[in-house]
Design a protein that fits this description.
Elements (H helix, E strand, L loop, with lengths): L2 H22 L3 H13 L5 H7 L10 H14 L4 H4 L11 H11 L1 H4 L14 H16 L3 E6 L13 E4 L2 E3 L7 E2 L2 E3 L10 E8 L8 H9 L6 H15 L5 E3 L2 H8 L7 E7 L7 H15 L8 E9 L4 E9 L3 E8 L5 E4 L2
Parallel strand pairs: 1-6, 1-8, 2-4, 5-12, 6-7, 8-9
Antiparallel strand pairs: 2-3, 9-10, 10-11, 11-12
The chain binds S-adenosylmethionine (SAM).
InterPro entries: UCP012608
Pfam families: DUF2332
Organism: Sphingoaurantiacus capsulatus
Length: about 350
């Protein structure tokens, strides 16, 4: 085996594994695209050479999703009609392989920039899981909430009180809601309460501007092709957020939490995050954890502090929703949930 073939094999295996993940996550079309790329991508294009020569771990770098995001963006803007004929909502024909490889040749230069950085997403389906946690905090404190979101991305989940919900029969019928979230639910419904947001602010290393059309197209490009319901939901939430974007500061979460988060009389101060903590440097995670414990020790019933975490928990085989509420400070696992909020198993 030559060096070149050895590098190719490692990258091709990454695409094949991504195909398996897509199948497991209910995205058979994207799985087929990744399988074709794993078998047929070649070195006749700059895109092919850059992908097959990828120097670091392809899956850690989300390399397959960089390329499929670029393809989907070009399909969405009408740039690749022959490939679009196979792309959802159209039904893929037997000659998808040729159409895909021809599209890479045709749009070689336009695809290259998509390889430069990993996908950055903002999944609004996660609001259903976070809102269930806020119901618990509102019920137990009886106070309006001051929301601090870490890794807020485009801020879609920071505006979660703008959406309507049916959470296991607990209906939140928000007037004028752009989307209604109805995750598949098992277990008891969450606590009955009214969630009132007194104020909100987010932080992200790279906040996304939802009033910028290129940013919006980029976010939509990363939603998996056949998941049309997610595309529609995201489109509606993005349009609504563009009319009222929340403040999101550009910096690492740790210093921001240290400066801004403290129990305040008259509100329940809530630090929340979804599928973000794992991306923070270990030092930032430790500083945030230490700050929450130190400030939590000073919390009172009039000035409570909550830490709501919806994060992947491999030992639980899913993402989980955890809540620590001070005073008290017990760490409670409220739910297991699909990472996009598709289903929720309520444990409380
Ligand atoms: C997978 S995205 C999740 C975004 C959003 N929370 C959601 O659920 O859709 C992770 C987010 O964390 C942000 N991020 C990564 N490291 C960070 C850090 N050290 N401080 C603040 N934000 C960070 C990324 O820019 C990205 O927007």
């Amino acid at each position: 085996m030559t060096d070149e073939t050895r590098v190719d094999a490692r990258v091709r295996a990454g695409f094949a594994t991504q195909a398996e993940w897509c199948t497991a996550m209910g995205a058979p079309f994207l799985a087929r695209i990744c399988t074709i790329l794993s078998e047929k991508l070649d070195r006749t294009t700059a895109t092919g050479r850059r992908v097959l020569d990828w120097p670091t771990a392809p899956l850690v770098d989300a390399l397959p999703l960089r390329l499929t995001g670029g393809l989907q963006a070009l399909v969405r803007r009408g740039r690749l009609p022959a490939l679009a004929a196979h792309w959802p909502p159209n039904v893929a024909g037997d000659d998808l392989d040729e159409a895909l490889i021809a599209a890479i040749t045709d749009a070689d230069a336009e695809l290259l920039p998509w390889l430069d950085g990993p996908p950055q997403t903002n999944e609004v389906g996660r609001s259903g899981v976070l809102m269930a946690g806020l119901l618990v905090i509102a019920a137990e404190t009886g106070l309006p909430l001051a929301l601090f979101e870490l890794g807020a991305s485009a801020g879609l989940n920071l505006r979660l009180d703008a959406y309507a919900y049916d959470l296991g029969g607990r209906v939140i019928d928000t007037a004028g809601a752009p989307i209604t979230l109805t995750p598949r639910w098992t277990g008891n419904p969450p606590a009955a309460a009214t969630v009132t947001v007194a104020n909100r602010r987010g932080v992200d290393l790279n906040p996304l501007d939802v009033t910028d059309s290129a940013t919006v197209e980029r976010l939509l490009a990363y939603v998996w092709a056949e998941q049309n319901e997610r595309v529609e939901r995201l489109t509606a939430a993005l349009a609504a957020t563009a009319g009222d974007p929340p403040a999101i500061d550009r910096e690492d979460a740790a210093g921001w939490v240290e400066r801004r988060v403290a129990p305040t009389p008259g509100v329940a101060t809530v630090v929340m995050h979804s599928i973000a903590f794992q991306y923070f440097p270990a030092e930032s995670r430790d500083r945030i954890t230490a700050h929450m414990a130190a400030r939590g020790a000073k919390a009172t019933a009039e000035a409570p502090l909550a830490w709501l975490r919806y994060e992947l928990e491999p030992e639980a085989g899913a993402a989980t929703l955890r809540l620590t509420l001070w005073p008290g400070g017990e760490d409670r696992r409220l739910a297991k949930a699909h990472p996009h909020g598709t289903w929720i198993e309520w444990l409380a």
